[in-house]
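Interim report to the steering committee. The following record documents the input for Exodeoxyribonuclease 7 large subunit (446 residues).
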Amino acid sequence: MPASPEALSVSEVNRRARQTLERDFDELWVEGELSGVSRPSSGHVYFTLKDDRAQLRCALFRNRARFVAAPLRDGDLVRVRGRLSIFEPRGDYQLIVEAVQAAGEGELLLAFERLKAQLAAEGVFANARALPYPPRRLLVLSSPTGAAIRDVLAVLAARWPLVEVTLIPVPVQGREAAPAIIAALGLLNRQSALDPARDAILVTRGGGSLEDLWAFNDEHLARAIQHSRLPVMSAVGHEVDVTLADFAADARAPTPSAAAEQLVPDRRDLTHRLQVLEERVSRAAQARLERESQRLDHLRARLRHPGEALARQRQTLESLSARLDGAMERRLVAQRRHLDQLQRRLAAHPPERGLTEARMRLASARQRLGLAIDHNLARQRERLAAQARELQAVSPLAVLGRGYAILENREGQVIKRARDTRPGEQLNARLGEGRLTVEVTQRKGS
């Protein structure tokens, strides 16, 4: 029988199945009827989503369940967003739920996605300016009676009470909400030119259903936020809620409280940092004082009384003075000895004797030089006369002196043959004495 392939453990099979599901499936929306809703003490919610032909186990964990506003009841028709996975210990195929909506919100979601794609293509969501940190004067567009403004003010007061907050009351739900927020944005931007201290805008409201938040998905509101000269932060709803205002703003926070935390630092953190820095500076100063004190003790140990140093210097000076006197005496003795030697040499060889001999040698040299010059001049005159005679013998002028002539054409070329001339041509004749201009009347010979 052929060898059987290696078998996988059950846990390995479930693990590979879970990895395949999570890798191959993105987040998806599923619509169905709730059944078997269970809420154990852990805070998680477990339920089954079913239709008339199938069912799907679902798990909504506590960190997401707290953002679901409406209670989940058996029989409700809902739309849930999540990702497929497998609970490995039991091998349960399930949907890990991230958000839950009433099923009637489907058309709104389709409209939201279409408008989102259109505005993204137009660059409405391209804002990315940095908000001042912390802002000097914060302008808040929100409902004056909502929980959002209370959360924002509470967090700001606790973290950074120095910021000046101006509430611009606007409706945050219903048909009049978007136009009111757009008008407020326009007014604030016009006033910002007169009041440069206004440097940031926060648009916020608390959570709610998709219909409650729909005013913040208004196309004109998204464009107004994009064109705002003042940087805008949007904090609408809870963490799972996303609106077009969030995409158009320069910054987004998941909740109003989170927006306040992002806008300003925590004074308690700064106080703690200052305390830490103060302690570090204090420790550094103490360590420096200790090092300098130790250095001072070391210098004190090395320090001697000035009298001791002066005594050592005086002793050194006396020693150097004695050495100098001895060296000068020895140098004088050596110089006297050398001078005596020079005087004896001078007496043995007086300069007068050398001068007499030098004068005699100079007179003899002058006599020999005169004779040599006269002899050389005579020899050079004889050579010059001989060369002059030789030159005269071969000079063409000597030939001309005997009655000959040299003919030249107008270009100065010497005429050697009769055929080099033509009848009527004028030639120059160079004689022994002077020149003649002659004309050729007849040419004979070659």
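The CA atoms of residues 278 and 284 lie 10 Å apart. The committee is asked to note this result when reviewing the revised timeline.
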